[in-house]
Amino acid sequence: MSNDEKIYQQILKAIIEHQLPPGARLPEDSLAVAFGVSRTGIRKVLQRLALEHFVVIVKNKGAQVNRPNETEALEVLDSRILIEPQLIHELLPHWNTTHSQTFRTMVQEENSAEQNSQLADSIQLTARFHYELAKLSGNRILAAFVEQLCYRSSLILAAYGTRGSVSCDGGDHSKLLDLLDKKDANNAEKWMRDHLKHIKASLILESREEQNIDFKRLFSR
């Protein structure tokens, strides 16, 4: 793993685990000192995070953790509720035993992250499950849209979610895979809709006070 990738993973983990809350400033110089790298290296990482909507970069003000508002959070989840269940009927003709095995491995990784209280990993893994599933629909435009919605959902869960947002309280993904294996499109679609509605309902849409961040301590190795 490259040094840039390690820094990216550490900052992303800090955002998702609420150590860097929405709205927190991300000064290039402070991060460069904390990681012992150049500001150029930090800038590359922040630009990558900005493309994924975890960070916003404002001209002459620098970078900060994205702060999705309540309306945005609800609109992202509502968009997923509208789109993802509909893609079930599109992906089923492509579904086979190889896909089933691949996605069951993902579920095992999700369960392991949850059991080990690795919230950042849980959020990333559940997002991957959803957008990889959407890709099987064959509709590349919608699949790419779902992927972006999943990235934005990850930030929303980091900002407003609870552990129940990504736990099996909302339905273990393996249950969906069982329905797909049976080619039960109607119940699989219903499962997906109910699952996403649970995630939406689990959000705690309240503002959090801005905090002073000690980057050197947070990212000490």
Structure description:
InterPro entries: GntR_C (IPR011711), TF_FadR/GntR_C (IPR008920), Tscrpt_reg_HTH_GntR (IPR000524), WH-like_DNA-bd_sf (IPR036388), WH_DNA-bd_sf (IPR036390). The chain is built from eleven helices and three strands. With 221 residues, it is mainly alpha-helical. The protein has two domains: 3-67 and 207-218, Orthogonal Bundle (Arc Repressor Mutant, subunit A); 70-202, GntR ligand-binding domain-like (Four Helix Bundle (Hemerythrin (Met), subunit A)). The chain has a three-stranded antiparallel beta sheet with strand order 1-3-2. The radius of gyration is 18 Å and the shape is elongated.
For this structure, what is the CATH homologous superfamily of the largest domain? GntR ligand-binding domain-like
CATH architecture of the largest domain: Up-down Bundle
Strand order of the largest sheet: 1-3-2
How many extended strands? 3
In CATH, the topology of the largest domain is named Four Helix Bundle (Hemerythrin (Met), subunit A)
Q: Total helix count?
A: 11
Shape: elongated
Helix content: 55-70%
Derived from helix and strand composition plus strand pairing, the structural class reads: mainly alpha
Q: What's the alpha carbon Rg, rounded to whole Å?
A: 18 Å
Distance between the termini: 16 Å
**What about the largest sheet?**
3 strands, antiparallel
Strand content: under 5%
What's the domain count? 2
According to CATH, what is the class of the largest domain? Answer: Mainly Alpha
Pfam family, one: GntR
Organism: Marinomonas transparens
Domain HTH gntR-type: 1-68
GO molecular function: DNA binding; DNA-binding transcription factor activity
